[in-house]
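Quick one before lunch.
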Amino acid sequence: MKALLVNPWIYDFAAYNFWIRPLGLYKIAEWLWERDIQFSLVDALSPFKAPGKLQRTVVKRPEVLRAIPRQYSRYGISLDDFVQLIRKAGPFDVAFMTSSMSYWYPGVTEAVNIIKNINPDAFVILGGIYATLWPQHAQGKSGADLIVEGPFEGQASAICDMLGIPKEPVRTRKKWYELGLHDGLSYSGTRTAQGCPFNCTYCGSRKISGPFKPREPDKILNELLYLHKIGVQDIAFYDDALLVDFESRLKVVLDGLARHNVSFIFHTPNGLHARLIDSKVAYYLKKHKFKTIKLSLETTSPARQKATGAKVTNEAVKEAVTNLLKAGVTSESIGIYLLAGLPGQEAREVEESIRFVKSLGVRPYLSEFSPIPGTPEWHKLEKEGILSEDTDPLLTNNTVFFTLYSKITGEDWKYLNKIRLKA
Ligand code: SF4
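Model of the iron/sulfur cluster complex:
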């Protein structure tokens, strides 16, 4: 039995490498290793510097996106390089492919197509975010033989039965970084927990990752120490809830690094919970060189904050920013995420949110809302007749959905970005 692990391309109007790493595939590599199954990894999004641009190839815009007059591209390595890597991996029996944003699915179908052309008998298993949120679409469109919804562990046993591989490990697990999977660039990603204890009405975390499940701090520390040894300097935390139980989780890891006299530059591209940044947490973030600190506010409307899950308040963000600045974090390191284009949201609400963030002396970042199947926000849009189970995931692309269905016009958007960037 030989396996191939594949991270496909991004297809979008824009994409940027904010320390992208296929952590889910790395876990499958560890799982295969402990069952003594040979594997190779083909990562279409490596090696590219981070933060930085990904290689881009303009491609034909799918028909369903004809109303968006912008260049549409494939991001990642070239098609030729991808084909060469698949050929170099040699014949394989099974391919495990991950997927990220649902509206990047053309990258998945392209990759499955190439794999099947080169190796027609290979059994392709597709997991990840797209497979979890759009299983029927993935079943019909991706070309994969099996769609895995939710965390891989939930279906590992059935996959063993299907492929005839041992259910129990036959040798001691090795971690992905010990298996030579790191591409040699000076950054990596890690996760201190799966999932999030909150449940916001626009978020797919629960469905994608399952319930909140922290990892043992010792294991995270060992991972970071190893990565440091092989030259990694920048670490991005992929967590949805990094600061939850700070004392017994992240603090233990950071103290451990200090004991070993090891440091990194840390980044939190996923927003942190402002309520959890007290003066001690702020001190730790400063001391341990957290350079990219993003907080999630989404909106300053108290009514909408409450209605969407009550994860944050304006006061909490104000206090978190004050604590960070007092601890010596520079204002350039702090960014606040705001959502634009939520169902029923007017430009005025976004403008007020931008002005609030700017009044704190830090930078607002606007994300266009993208609806996620199964969430309360999705159901609202379904009731309005905007979405249905036949909707093409391409239409949920943040740029597309925002342009076609939000209450915010192109002119509003220009104005909002102007005030966002104004000194
Ligand atoms: S706090 Fe963040 S990750 Fe958690 S449910 Fe809300 S939006 Fe999702």
